[in-house]
Amino acid sequence: MSTDAHLKEEKVDGGIAYDGGFLKIHKDRVRLPNGALTNREYIRHPGAVAILPVLDDGRILLERQFRYPNAQVFIEFPAGKIDEGEDHLECAKRELEEETGYTATEWHFVTTIHNAIAYSDEHLDLYLARGLKAGDVKLDEGEFVECFTATLDELLEWVRTGEVSDVKTVIGAFWLDKLRRGDWKLN
């Protein structure tokens, strides 16, 4: 098996350039594999979960939410930040209930994705949720979400046309399609 040593960069010095309430931006000086020095700026993120909620009739539970950095409403799967020390599955259960009011009786880990590898260490753990039961929404203060349902085929069409561009939702839709077709199995 080969080693990746010829590709690795090594930190020389650096640290936090901005320490926000949610994100930390780092600026480091690094030595490249050829010995040259350069700077790397990147965001440290605590990680998040995304839930692929499938109702008993096969419809998918989705959200519409305004996302400030892009100044538009996005269609996306329920998701949320992992609190420090929080179990990832427990976070998924909490986020599903808070944002949609639904709880689930069946949970499956799907995969981990890294959605912005060039400038962030953020990762999202995707979970499939089935056996959904409706309940009361418990949104965080300042959080505004509209829930709705769609068929998987509708969701895939929205991905195809660009109406859905959120990466976790695009990847989640492809996973659901592969699972439905029997092409992929959950571990």
TrEMBL record:
Coiled coil: none
Required cofactor(s): Mg(2+)
Any single GO BP term: nucleoside phosphate metabolic process
Catalytic activity, as annotated: GDP-alpha-D-mannose + H2O = alpha-D-mannose 1-phosphate + GMP + 2 H(+)
Keywords for this protein: Hydrolase
Family: Belongs to the Nudix hydrolase family. NudK subfamily.
One cellular component (GO) term of this entry: cytosol
The species this protein was found in: Pseudoduganella lutea
Origin: domain of life: Bacteria
Name of this protein: GDP-mannose pyrophosphatase
Domain spans labelled Nudix hydrolase: 43-172
Span of the signal peptide: none
InterPro entries (alphabetical): NUDIX_hydrolase-like_dom_sf (IPR015797), NUDIX_hydrolase_CS (IPR020084), NUDIX_hydrolase_dom (IPR000086)
A GO term, aspect molecular function: hydrolase activity
